[in-house]
Amino acid sequence: MGATLTLDDGSPALGPVALLFGEAPSRIVISFRNADRAAVEKAVAGAPFALIGRTGGDTIRIAVGGEKAVALAVADAERAWSNAVEQYFAKRVA
Predict the structure, then answer these.
(1) Across-strand partners of 5?
(2) Burial letters 10-22, b for 16+ CB under 10 A, else e
(3) What is the distance between the alpha carbons of residues 41 and 21, in angstroms, rounded to a whole number?
């Protein structure tokens, strides 16, 4: 399933690579129906909450600080993910 996301942590110094792949503590992504938003916000009351996008479609689109960072078909992302370990070791053996 695809998604369209807009990420901005408020720190331009962090940059897109760190924001996308960094290991900052205590971040959780929750997918929920629009009708359940109030219940989700109530459940996480007291913790920072931000709506960052929507799921659906056949493309993954991620913007960081207003700049396009990722635009990739889900099928291409799945193919890269499912073959990553095999390709890594094939390069090391060759």
Answers:
(1) 53, 62
(2) eeeeeebeebeee
(3) 26
What's the distance, Cα to Cα, between the start and end of the chain in Å? 35
> CA 7 to CA 16: how far, in whole Å?
9
Residues 6+ apart with CB under 8 A from 90: none
Confidence (pTM) = 0.77
Q: Return the C-alpha torsion angle 28, 34, 37, 40, nearest 10.
A: -40
Nearest to 19 by CA among 38, 4, 5: 5
pLDDT given for residue 74 in this prediction: 97
What pLDDT, in 10s, does the model give residues 43-62?
A: 999 998 989 999 999 999 99
